[in-house]
Amino acid sequence: MPTVYHPDVVIIGGGILGCAIARYLSKTPDLGVVVVERHRLGEQTTSHAAALLTRVRTHRALTDMAMETFRVIDELGDTQSEPLPLKKVGSLQVSAKAEGWRQIEQTAQRAAESGVCAELVSTNEAMQLAPWLELSSDTSALWVPDDGYIDPYTLCLAYAADARRNGARILLKRTVSELLRKGSKVTGVRLENGETISAGTVIDAAGPWSTALAMQAGIHLGMAPVRSHYWISAPHPRITTNGPMTILPDSGAYARPEVGGLLFGLRDPQSVVAHPNALPDNLHGFRFDTDPTGDLALESGYEALRSQLPALDELQLAHYVSNVSSYTPDGFALLGPMPGVEGFIAATGCSGAGIGMSGGIGRLVAELATNQSPFVTPEPFRPDRFGAIDSYSPDFIRRCAEARARKRTG
């Protein structure tokens, strides 16, 4: 006979968001929590992320959520034999354009309001911090010394380990085939092997697969699978191992050291998307139909990036990493219950910020699921904020893609 589980909460997806949510939920006494993952933990979108961790964001709630991630990284490190490998190399944001200057000024102001250490530095100081840059005298530069990056897979496993220590159960190699719904209430999930998990709350943290999964229950999530990608060069003498993350809004790019080389990402001028119902079960080896090797994106963005990073001409590219990010039209995640549907909570659409926001997302979703007072306002993340939509509409998918193309914050 197929096994029937009866936890209080079932989380679909064992990526970094699912594991972070499980970790926070597991702190609630006597709450049964089950995570279902059809592969291994963190091996799909999580493990391919560039994992830039910046404290200061475009909205106060986002800043508070990002700072929660830094806080929990320290806390998780205390539960292990050694601290988590957070590389606190700082972030350097530079711009020689008026729009970028405004972004830097706003970031500096938000840092001051949030008590985050940040300082404007000269172009010479900026180039000393990041020797691979060459900046004009009219460049504005902001230095945030406590930012950094982390191996996302390691952080994901640390969330999961803490959740397990607190009693959460994680089921691997199990595929959710169906959301179970009775009237207006989602009552659990059915697995491909016939097992059933009945739960008071179902949390959809299935990353880019969340949309197709929710559609089974008639729920339209406002997000689409959009390409994110980066390149890694071979080691080069101008790339200092402990150099900072550099955010380059003028070219829509970011860069940071990686094993002696440079990791850098570029925004696609016209974002590359996939249909939410056309993703394979396993993303290993997956390539988008448009520009599958990233060559066209690199060519279109090369000159703009080269204007501030002329060392690009000297770098030998060693790796190209293409991944799937779940973008919403406004770049804010989908977090919380869907009005009119009981027992269902969305925890997806992280818009390229899933690693850096994982602690804040985990905490907020856990608080919403257990009817606690949320530590940040959940209003910007309401899953119904786009009104009546069709998740599979080409026009709506295009709106999501445009959010990726507009992003200038790394």
From TrEMBL:
**N-terminal signal peptide:** none
Q: Can the keyword Glycoprotein be found in this entry's annotation?
A: no
* Database matches in Gene3D superfamilies: D-Amino Acid Oxidase, subunit A, domain 2, FAD/NAD(P)-binding domain
Q: Which domain of life is it from?
A: Bacteria
Checking InterPro entries in the record gives: FAD-dep_OxRdtase (IPR006076), FAD/NAD-bd_sf (IPR036188)
FAD dependent oxidoreductase domain residues: 8-368
Q: Name one GO cellular component term.
A: cytoplasm
The yes or no answer to whether the keyword Ribosomal protein is present is no
Q: Which GO terms describe its molecular function?
A: oxidoreductase activity
Keyword line: Oxidoreductase
- Give the protein's recorded name: FAD-binding oxidoreductase
Organism per entry? Marinobacter maroccanus
Organism taxonomic ancestry: Bacteria, Pseudomonadati, Pseudomonadota, Gammaproteobacteria, Pseudomonadales
